[in-house]
Amino acid sequence: xxxxxxxxxxxxxxxxxxxxxxxxxxxxxxxxxxxxxxxxxxxxxxxxxxxxxxxxxxxxxxxxxxxxxxxxxxxxxxxxxxxxxxxxxxxxxxxxxxxxxxxxxxxxxxxxxxxxxxxxxxxxxxxxxxxxxxxxxxxxxxxxxxxxxxxxxxxxxxxxxxxxxxxxxxxxxxxxxxxxxxxxxxxxxxxxxxxxxxxxxxxxxxxxxxxxxxxxxxxxxxxxxxxxxxxxxxxxxxxxxxxxxxxxxxxxxxxxxxxxxxxxxxxxxx
Length: 270
Prior knowledge:
Distance between the termini: 25 Å
Shape: elongated
Low-confidence stretches: none
Number of helices: 7
Oligomer: single chain
Mean pLDDT: 92
Number of strands: 14
């Protein structure tokens, strides 16, 4: 379950979030019908909360954050928007929240879904230049399994330099997936040329594989290039990667032999 929208961080000191998040809602309501919006609060610290407002269907213009949410363990509460403060006082009596999803209607009603899941949150957003060294370290770790398929570390992802990653950062988009502690556990990058988005370096930390995070990263990078043709490639030995891409709607259109050991398969999605 994913939640995509525009993210901001608000102070919770003296319950400031009720007023400031309310202003954020008013700003978004000026662009969209209130009934089409929903807000997600998460990543509480001693003084702040991250809050994302998105659409119930589709992605809001300027959406810059995706949060991966648990599929279960949600509790629903309904009430009046004017009573939101006391509603949360009652919810908080049972302990801190991990996530809360809010929706409101024009008649002053509110609906809150909240979760106390012990699963730490993971969010996806654009990487900044200061993230590139950590992403490159993740790349060196994540592609060890690819190197093992060939019995050699002499593969391009393990030889890329920080200068080359910086150039890709300047010419395209690099996304990062971060944990509650701020560690980068996934990444993907792409650039657009002549109507095609070329996607590459889709990676997930080995300890977090097997939970669909690669599929979410792929879907997220596509969202930044809506209307484009998508293209990516992997080696013919990377059966798991090929399966992931084909499940996401990609089709093989070409194969290119580098040498007797390395053959790349190219996939596209219109």
